[in-house]
Amino acid sequence: MAVQGWREPPELRAEEFHLWWGRVVPQGPRDSARFARCLSSDEEARAARFHREVHARRFRARRTFLRRILAAYLGASPAELAFRTGEHGKPALDPDAGIEFNLSHTSDLVLVGVGRRVVGVDVERFRLKTSLERLAEQVLSPGELAGFLELAADRRLAAFFRIWTRKEAVLKVLGDGLSRDPRSFEVGFEEHGWGEVWAPDSPPPIGELGLLDLETEDPRACAACISAPGTDWSARVVTRVELG
Q1: How far apart are CA 152 and CA 170, in angstroms?
Q2: Which domains does the chain have, with CATH numbers?
Q3: Is the pTM of this model over 0.90?
């Protein structure tokens, strides 16, 4: 895989998370051979299930990007890495290697978070396939929904995706996916950058998570967030690369 802008990762401190941004650029036929040298047979089978070739190529690029990132931290070959899947589908290295990771993508944009403790990341483009208000009712807590509906119409789209990326990042940290009702906790929709999860009726760890909104530097509207236990951590962007 050709990577423009790649750099080796700096030291990964216990209180720090590293963020890797990637954008999948148009690829030629020879890229498939490059990916095949890195991906597992299971990953190739998953790629083959996509109906459109552009989606299959993006999947291969994302998985190769992830493998190359993790291999750089571990001093291993990307093809050597093995993964296991948790009860609700969250992937992890197998065997455990002392680092945690999470990947999110939206069309051609990829975000990978790496740390010494569990991490969740999410990135979304501002696009809808249904009514914004109807979707908000399915995602927001009663308090969040009341505040959301008070916003001017032209502010609601960005506010909704700010909330949604925060909630997705939280659910990824917890590892139970959408089996947990996103309306059961609050993350707020204010542009505060850093925040905490409010869940008065939920046991730890959900009420002990911190949130950090991320700058996407994308000319098209999108939102991103990272979540992790506690409030004693920071995040830094390692690099932004083009994948092709």
Answers
A1: 27
A2: 14-243 (3.90.470.20)
A3: yes
